[in-house]
Specification:
alpha+beta; five-stranded mixed β-sheet; five-stranded antiparallel β-sheet; 4 helices; globular
């Protein structure tokens, strides 16, 4: 993902942090209406109402969350024209804080909400595919001795999102 067009988004629920990754855009249900954020958005704090949250990011090596541009060279070049990924989540009441991150020279957005779930089965399946891709990458890197703690953490981050947001979907599949 082109870091110049990405900013960090963290989502925390009562179960802990369920998402922490780079996105290109974010749309959230504010109490006064939907709010869109992109890179270098002005600092803001707002309350959130229950509704649909949409995150969009550049398609990277794993094809979704945890894509790392620094690691593209490990496996080979990635086409620049790949389409972006999009995840829709349903969130509960909460708040959002968007502030400047001097370390990354862009904004960082933190969302605290009562709960989160996937908006529909398509979003759930997409995140499961991201996880499978990240796991495959981890196996490839382990085979050539290039695995890092960051690679394992990427899989763990996706697992937290699936566990927190996928409860309803998992129940429906049973």
């Amino acid at each position: 993902m082109n870091k110049a067009h990405a900013f960090k988004v963290s989502i925390v629920t009562t179960e802990g942090q369920v998402f922490d990754d780079d996105v290109m855009s974010l749309i959230v249900p504010g109490t006064l209406g939907y709010l869109g954020l992109q890179t270098d958005h002005a600092p803001i704090m707002t309350s959130l109402k229950p509704g649909k949250l949409t995150m969009t990011g550049a398609k990277g090596l794993e094809g979704g969350p945890t894509a790392s541009p620094e690691k593209k060279q490990d496996v080979g070049p990635i086409a620049e024209e790949e389409p972006p990924w999009r995840i829709n989540l349903l969130i509960g009441e909460g708040f959002l804080e968007n502030s400047w991150d001097p370390e990354r020279s862009t904004n960082r957005c933190r969302i605290v909400t009562r709960g989160v779930e996937f908006a529909d089965m398509q979003d759930y399946e997409q995140v499961k595919a991201f996880r499978e891709s990240a796991e495959n990458r981890l196996r490839q890197l382990t085979a050539v001795g290039k695995q890092s703690d960051g690679d394992r953490e990427a899989v763990e981050r996706i697992d937290r999102l699936i566990k927190a947001a996928g409860k309803k979907m998992i129940e429906e599949l049973k």
